[in-house]
Amino acid sequence: MILSFDPDSLPLPIGHFIGSRLVPAEGLIDMHRPSDGKPYAGCPLADEVLVDRAVETAKKALKASNWGGVRPRERTVVLQRWADLIESEAETLAKLEALSSTRPIGHLVAGDIAVSAEQIRFFAEFADKEGSDLVPTDDSNLGMIMTEPYGVVGAITPWNFPVSMAAWKLGPALAAGNAVVLKPSEMTPFSTVYLAELAIRAGLPAGLINIVLGDGAVTGNAITGHPDIAKVSFTGSTGAGSAIMANIARTGIKPMTLELGGKSPQLVFADADLNKAAAAIAQSILSNAGQACVAGSRLIVEESIAAPLAEAIIARFWEVEAGPTWHETTQYSPIISKRQLNRIHDVVQSTVATGAECLAGGRPMDSYGYFYEPTLIAGVDQSSPAVAEEIFGPVLTLQTFADEEEALALADHPTYGLAAGLFTRDLSRALRLTRRLQAGTVWVNRYGRSRDHILPTGGHKRSGIGKDLGREVYHANRKSKSVLISL
Q1: How far apart are CA 170 and CA 162, in angstroms?
Q2: Distance from the CA of 478 to the CA of which of 250, 307, 327, 404 falls in 20 to 30 A?
Q3: At what angle do helices 162-175 and 72-88 cross, to 10 degrees?
Q4: What's the sign of the alpha-carbon dihedral 320, 326, 329, 331?
Q5: Residues 6+ apart with CB under 8 A from 473
Q6: How distant is the alpha carbon of residue 360 from its chain centre?
Q7: Burial of 314 by CB count in 10 Å (0-12 exposed, 13-18 middle, 19+ buried)?
Q8: Contact at 8 Å (CB) between 356 and 378?
Q9: Topology of domain 7-260, CATH
C-alpha cells in the first residue's frame, strides 16, 4: 500500500451529515493546511436552526428505530460491522485526516484508525454485558438499580486527534443506546463526516449519528445549550470547558463529561533506566509535536542525572525529520495553525526573557508549513511561562530535585492534574508516589496509553470532570433509576 498522496486532488465531503446524507453547505470558515500553510477549503457553520434540525432528526431516529430498546446484541453487531468498515476504509479516512490535521498519514493508518476500530469494538461489547443490578434488601422487598439511555448526547471533539476523539464519543454513546449530535473541530472536520457515513453503511439506523460543522461560539453553544440534548461530552481546552459549563448552567442542568487541558510532569529518579526514560520522555513531547492534552511537558529529574538525561533526550530530538502529513515517511508533525505556532514561540521567548536557557530548539523551523523545533528549556521555576501555561507544542521544561518531597512539590500544578510519568526501579517508591501524584493517570516507567481500552482517562483539578474510555464512560452514557418493589 502506497500511502503518500497529492493533497490538491483529494475530494472532500464538505457539508453537514444529518440523517443519512451529506447536507451541502458553503464554507464560511477559511481552512489552511498545517503542512504547507495553503488555503484549501471552507468549513460550513451550523447555526441554531441547523443544530435544532440535527437534534430533531436524532430524536425521531431514536423513536423510529427503538435503538435504546432493541435486543442489546443487535447494537453490538451493528457497531462491530462499523469497526470492520473503519479498518477496510482506513486509507480514505487517513487521507482525509492527514490533509487538514497534524497527524502524519503513516501514524494514522498504523495507529489512530486501527485504534479507533478497536475502541468501537470494545464499547460494542458492553451493550449486552453491562446492565441493571439487583441489590440487597430485606426479604419483603426487591431492590434494583436500572439503567437506561439518556436519549440524545451532544459531543464536541478537538482538532488534534479527530477520528480517535470521535470514536471515544460515538462508541460508548451508541453502544449505550443513545443518538449523538457531534461537532468536530472546524479545523479538522472531514474525516469525522466520513466516519459517520461508514456507520450508516454498516447498518446503523439513519439519524442516530448527526455531524454538524462549525465553531464553538455558534455551533458549540447551540449544542451544549439545547434543551433536548440530555448529556454533553467534550474534549478540549480548560477554558473552553469552563465556557461549556457556564452555557449549560445558563440554559439548564445536564450531566457532562469534560476531558480538558494538562501540564503533565515526568519524574525521573537516579535509579531509573536512563535510556528507557529518555526514549519515553522524548517521544511524549515529539508525538504530534506536543499537541496532546497528556503531553509530558514538564521534566523533573534528580540532580545527579540531569545532565546525561538531557543529553540523551536532545539526541533523540535531532533524529526527527519534519515533513508534510501526506508523505508516508513523515514522522514529525506540523503545528495546527500559524496562530498557534506564534503562540508557542511567544511562550518560549517570554520564558527565555526571565533567564531560562534553551538547551535545544526554541524557534520555528525554516519551512513552508507551521513547524516548530523540538525544544528543551532549563533554568525555569514554577512561575516561568513555559512551566505554568499549557503550551500545546513540542516544548519540554527541565527542573531538578534533591529528594522525593521536592519532586512532588515541583510536580504539583495549581491548575492541571491530567497525567504524570514516573521513572524508577524502586517499586516501593513507585507505589508511594503514585498515590500522592495529583493526576488522573500515572504511567510508571513508560509515558502514554496502551491499547488496553479498559483503562479510563480523565483529570483531576481543572483537567476535567468524569472519564473517557473504560467501563466508566459506558456507564456515563446511561442514567440510573432506583426501583424498590414490595413483595
Answers
A1: 12
A2: 250
A3: 160
A4: positive
A5: 123, 168, 172, 257, 456, 466, 467
A6: 28
A7: middle
A8: yes
A9: Aldehyde Dehydrogenase; Chain A, domain 1 (3.40.605)
Half-sphere exposure of 69 (CA within 13 A, CB side): 6
Q: What is the pTM of this model?
A: 0.96
**Closest-CA residue to 213 (of 96, 51, 53):** 51
Instruction: Please give the Cα distance from 208 to 82 (Å, whole number).
Output: 13
Tell me if 224 sits within 8 A of 154, measured CB to CB: yes
Query: Which contiguous run of DSSP H or E holds residue 146?
Result: strand 141-149
Q: Where are the domains of the chain?
A: 7-260, 265-458
Assess contact for 178 and 127: CB atoms under 8 A: no
Closest CA to 29 of 214, 191, 193, 192: 214
Report pLDDT digits (tens) over 414-424: 999 999 999 99
Amino acid in position 214: G
DSSP letters of 48-62?
HHHHHHHHHHHHHHH
Distance CA 286, CA 420 (A): 16
In this predicted structure, the answer to whether residue 271 has a pLDDT above a threshold of 80 is: yes
CA–CA separation, 270 and 38 (whole Å): 47
> What is the arithmetic mean of pLDDT over 242-259?
95
Catalytic (active site) residue 404: no
25: confidence class by pLDDT, cuts 50, 70, 90? confident
Percent of the chain's residues with pLDDT above 90: 97
478-486 and 464-465: which strand pairing?
unpaired
Q: Give pLDDT, residue 368.
A: 85
Catalytic entry in 89, 186, 197, 293: 293
What nine digits make up the cell of 182? 457531534
Over range 92-103, report the average pLDDT.
97
Q: Residue 306 corresponds to which cell in the numbers above? A: 540531569
CA-to-CA dists, residue 418 to 280, 436, 467, angstroms: 18, 14, 11
Q: Which residues contact 333 (CB under 8 A, 6 or more apart)?
A: 34, 102, 103, 104, 288, 289, 291, 322, 325
DSSP reduced 3-state for 266: strand
Distances (CA, A) of 196 to 119, 190, 274, 434: 15, 10, 44, 39
Chain mean pLDDT for the chain: 96
Q: Does the annotation count 389 as an active-site position? A: no
Given the residues 97, 259, 302, 390, select the one marked as catalytic. Answer: 259
Superfamily of domain 265-458: Aldehyde Dehydrogenase; Chain A, domain 2 (3.40.309.10)
Residues forming a β-bridge with 18: 21
Residue 447 contacts residue 283 (beta carbons within 8 Å): yes
